[in-house]
Amino acid sequence: MFYLLVISFFFFLIIVGISLYQRYSQQANVKAFTNMDYVKELTDEAFETAIQNGVTLIDFWAPWCNPCKRQMPVIQEIAKEKKEEVTCYKINVDEHKSTARHMKIKNIPNIIIFKDGVPVRQLIGAKPKHLIMKAVESTLQEK
To answer: Annotated catalytic residue: which of 42, 58, 68, 74?
Structure first.
């Protein structure tokens, strides 16, 4: 009986440890994304101004969304590589609901590429880098 109690307690400690580790790693991913240099945070008030000129990529996301967290480093890489040609923003749909409603965002992650204020491409769900780059490149090549 004593051994059964010790084994149960040991498994309990393992489960608690795994749970704490997962929570910590999720928070670290969000913090890493929010400290990005190349992807700027966007608000409802600044949205219209931000998309007016040139090619703009906007990532609609939320901190609780795991696919959004996996998409974050990809967006950062694209923003770093295309910093001269494309302006990249992220907008938290929980904090900026007005813009999310205006753009009819129902699923996240949701990437919209604008050219001179007009949405020209939309990618819904987590996408690999090459697909997002293909959409960005084709937008840049359009006259």
So the answer is: 68
Closest CA to 58 of 40, 70, 74: 40
Query: Which residue positions in the chain have pLDDT lower than 70?
Result: 23-36, 143
Which of 55, 65, 78, 123 is catalytic? The answer is: 65
pLDDT at 33: 47
Q: Please report, for residues 12, 23, 65, 100, 117, the alpha-carbon distance to residue 18 in angstroms, rounded to integers and kept in the order given.
A: 10, 9, 20, 34, 46
Amino acid letter at 30?
Answer: V
pTM here is 0.72
88 labelled catalytic: no
Q: Is 68 designated active site?
A: yes
Torsion angle of alpha carbons 93, 97, 102, 103, nearest 10°?
10
The amino acid sitting at 108 is I
* Contact by Cβ (8 Å): 33, 81: no
Task: State both tokens at 83.
Answer: 């910093």
Which tokens hold the place of 71? 């998409």
Angle (CA) 69 63 51, round 5°? 85
Q: Please count the helices (runs of H) and the strands (runs of E) in the chain.
A: 5, 5
